[in-house]
Write a structure and sequence with these properties.
This is N-acetyltransferase domain-containing protein. It holds the Pfam family FR47. The protein has 8 helices and 12 strands. By secondary structure, the protein is α+β, with helices and mostly antiparallel strands.
Length: about 290
Amino acid sequence: MASDILQDVTVDEIPRVLEAMKKDWPQHFLLHQFASILEQYHKENIQNPKQVLYKYGDFEDGVYIVKSTFAIGAESVSLIYPYTTAADYTEFSKVLKETTRIPWTEKFMFEVTARRLMPTIQQVSAAKGCDLGTEEGTILFLPPESDIENKLLPEDVYLGSLDEHHVAEVNKNWPFKYPGSEKYVALEIQNNFGLGLFRKSDNKMLSSSVSFHSGGIFILYSNPNFRSRGYGEVIIREMAKEIRRQGRIPFGNIMTGNIGSTKLFNKMGFKEYSKSVYLFPNKLFDFAVLKH
């Protein structure tokens, strides 16, 4: 059987990927973050999602694909993060055309993808008979040199870690929930972390967020009856502090039209990293899934 154009990056080779992505730091931080978390998952023997890092070409200017396949009930969904540092997309197009690593006829999604790659992905997918829907956004990140303020929590609330007991509520509050998404939320909390802001008097969750397998700030939620009290800002700040503690760069993917979140992240010092897009097969999805 002929080998695929995309070759597995072994665990022993991941440090070379990380070193290559440090060039012009933090320009390529998101691939660096995906790779470092994949390395952590391997050390912790995390099997769901099944994550594989593929590469074509050299470490500095090659084409990368991070494939995270989640088993959700009887189904599986593959989330694909494609990346190249190259300004010319000829090799990127070649890889998409020739690889069998992308499950074009199954449930999959290109996640938090740099929008500059969208035309090439759409061109190749159309040639393969795969009609892709899109949801656009903007990745905002907290630059490494930016400080995170240390502020006291409001007196009537406390900060707590999310666990399996919070999954149903977090999923219920997620605007992009879908059949089976509760299992997905549970896996992200279990494999990564989530934080909640709770009222002391009755332990009611007032605001929350979950960090995904890319190391970002996702499913940001504040109870509509308790907004304009700074709770969302508290959660973003505390999520960012924990992500920094783990040696990563905090970021959020804000969907186009979400003016409130954009203003909040900007207020807290987050800067635009890149325009982003999610792409998914229209015939296989009747909902937009797995997005902030």
